[in-house]
Amino acid sequence: MHPVNPLCIDLDQPSLTGFRSFISSWLYRDTRTTLLVDPGPASTIPYLLEALQSFGVERLDFILLTHIHIDHAGGTGRLLTAYPEAQVICHPDGIAHLVDPAKLWQGSLKVLGKTAEAYGEIVPIPLNRISFANEFSRSAVRAFRTPGHAPHHCCYLIDDLLFAGEVAGVRGDVASGIYMRPATPPRFLLEVALNSIDNMLQLQPRRMVFAHHGLVNDAMKHLQIGRWQLQLWVQGVASVLDKKESTRENAFFDWLLTHDPVFQRIDQLSGDLLDRERIFFGNTFRGMLDYVQSLSVAARKELQTADLTIPADVLK
């Protein structure tokens, strides 16, 4: 049997700079099930429905949420009005926030401001339509709790295909090699994030979908890079702690351009995508800064001197 490739439905946000080929929803169909991973924000549900109809999707068995951030899950309740038979699968810690999303919506507004407004208000999900299960009947889906990017993060494995959400960070298409970066908003814990990647490495997936963004056919390589980057970037943050607070983020950016050959390829991104990545880079920096500042002085010094080499063939 040939492997099934999921269909990517880009959920671009023209009103936001660089928000193209970034937010995506993924349709997967085989002989057993039809499912959708991460419906995206409420503002793009009309476009998503149009795309699903064009693909002839009359029924969804499952809607899988990698996590409950507004750009991944905010439109789920609205999607259910068109596919009321679908069962939403979500990390247990996220269920209550989607059944009653008032607090989640206010938090999104506080953190994201106008970006959250562009995404649209989060629509509640009926309690009987959302749950968590490690394995689902009528399908070959396996769910795994993978905290790191968020405490309510999950990955999903179907045969050799891993829907990875942001467990290994973010990737982008560049002219040469691989561009990736971690995605670690507060509250970030390095050990937790590494453990989640290690658990995914043990599954040995062949293909992998990044929520941001795209399908890759060498999943293990990308997971290894994601794991290495988490450690390297934390080392970099520890290395700039002695800088003036107002200059740390820029000092960290410069440090990475010297030490991370994967992140160095950021200059190959188009101008608007580069602007977007620079903003999200700041979120990652702040999450890691909180973590590093929580460590003892001895632990920080150990971080600064750790040998974090990675085989050259992995970086190609």
Short description:
This protein is 39% helix and 16% strand.
What does this structure look like?
This protein is α/β, with parallel strands linked by helices. The protein has 2 domains: 139 residues, Ribonuclease Z/Hydroxyacylglutathione hydrolase-like (Metallo-beta-lactamase, Chain A); 146 residues, no CATH class. The protein is built from 11 helices and 13 strands. Helix 8 crosses helix 9 and helix 8 crosses helix 11.
Q: Descriptors for this entry?
A:
316 residues; alpha/beta; Metallo-beta-lactamase, Chain A; five-stranded mixed sheet; 13 strands; globular
- Span of the ends, CA to CA: 30 Å
From the alpha carbons, calculate the radius of gyration and give it in angstroms: 19 Å
Number of helices: 11
Helical content band: 25-40%
Order of helices and strands: EEEHEHHEHHHEEEEEEHEEHHHH
Strand coverage percent:
15-25%
Q: Structural class of the secondary elements?
A: alpha/beta
Strands, total number = 13
Rounded average pLDDT = 93
- Main sheet: strand order: 1-2-3-4-5-6
